[in-house]
Amino acid sequence: MGKTPLLEISRIEKSFGSQKILKGISLQVFAGEFLTFLGPSGCGKTTTLRIVAGFEEPDKGTVRLNGEDVTRLPPYKRDVHTVFQHYALFPHFDVFENVAFSLRLEKTPEPEVASRVRGALDLVKLGGFEKRRIDQLSGGQQQRVAVARSLVGRPSLLLLDEPLGALDLKLRRQMQLELKAIQKKTGITFVYVTHDQEEALTLSDRIAVFNAGEIVQLGDPKSIYETPRSSFVADFIGSANILEAQVKLNDGEHVVLLVEDEVELRLPRPVGFNGAEGAKVPLAIRPERISVHFEEPASDAGRLTFPGALQDVVYLGSATQMIISPFPKSAKVLAATIMGKADVSIDGARRRVWCEVSPRDVLLWPS
Amino acid sequence: MKRFPPLLKVYCGMIYLFLYLPMGVMMAFSFNDARRNVVWKGFTLKWYGKLFANKELMASLATTIELGLIATAISVALGMLASYALARHVRMRGRSAYAGLLNVPMMMPEIVLGIGILTFLVRAQIELSFWTLVLSHVVFCLPYATGAIRARLLSLQSSSYEDAAMDLGATEWEAFYKITLPLTGPAILSGALLAFTVSFEDFVTSFFVAGGGIETLPIRIYAMMKFGITPEINAMATVLLVFTLAVLAAYHAVSGGDQESAL
User: Fold this and answer.
1) Is the confidence metric ipTM above 0.85 for this complex?
2) Could you say which architecture CATH assigns to the domain A241-361?
């Protein structure tokens, strides 16, 4: 992309007291994008958002909006609006006055205020709620008012700080789709903060995965899910069985790994994998990429198989998860997810099963 | 519904009788048509008439109200500023020490406060006057004025209202007077009512610090009582009681029923 990024963060650092929260964050966001900051709590994603909004000043680094350095500008001089986690709707104003707040500050003429507020409320499907008091609204409705209030001023960038965190699961799913639709319709760039990986995968054009004050991976949802760049990302996005393996052989062509001191796997060397012989490395396999067989499968040169004992079957509704122990000497177990209804029962004794994985689905990382 | 055992009812009744009977007797005798407080001689309002005709007493009442209003205004203004700073700068060094020191005058024995202020004023060679009285009232009114305001501002801060206002284009000042100030209004009012009541009824500190012919109402009443408790004093006390109850009711109304937590 050759154009100027709408938002450019360069080498942002921030400490609170002796604790370093951000250790050099750099990122570009382009106009019209839906970008998500994803990470566990305390990873620095919200602090980064607050720096972009202007509530915090970074110790080092710059924030540019449309090429202009805004690092030291107060929030009210930035063309950026925020949807807060707990909405921060003004309780002494009704819905109309909440949405009209930014327009009134700009001394917008009254007829225009009325029509723009109506437009914003229609966009969030709250037409007719103008005169309601804030405490008369449900959580989901408050969320919609907060979005309308931030969009009515037509900012070039909208920041959303875990906006759906307070809603129940069903409403959250519905609002995800609506937010995505609003973003498409208005063309406004969204930067979204969440710790919910499913939400990030559903909504985003690109995801920036945060951990311990750094962006550990930046990419579209598919590349982050399929080719996580570390065991942290593999574990955080989706779920993964994270195991420890010792490299027995690495001849450039193939690698042989001894997983959890028990199971030996031989596979073509993944691109970039440079684990030396004898080294201990992390290895990950996603639960839905493991097939489970009750009879020993016919050996297939391309696939990896190993036996295990079925310990438990967990019913998940749309899927079934099997807990398998392929490593009798270790406490580590493997989770394997079977979509649909699996007709399995463990009658008293543990049952013997075979796990089958494609070598591509064995995730390894350069050290 | 679980029924109260009769004995418990009697017990509870006795407690309330013990608490309120003295005040009831006092109020009743303020309407008694006799110089002495012993025998009921019939209903009269003449003590109230005498009360309001007593120039010295009325002058001291005016002083007390004036003093209370000024001390309350200063306490609320200072309390608002201090609370605002404490609420906004959560990471300030020594924040909890500042917050704690703001409350200390409330716990301090009043006699210590009175002696302390008097000693200071004498050492600093400041002549006792109405304004030294105002100063000392501010000292002990401040924690009462501040309590509710600080609690309110802290909860406003955690709701990010000011952040939201500034995010939407309001300057610091606009965010303060359009959002924070209106939302703090009831807390300011309840803090002010509390501070005024505390100032109005203060005796000990005022007794130490009042000088130059300044007399507050409680000091005047004390002086009158040297000649025995007259029906006039009963009438005065009744007026004060009704006034205090009215303020208390107003305080409950503005603090929306959660008065126990505010105190």
Assistant:
1) no
2) Beta Barrel (2.40)
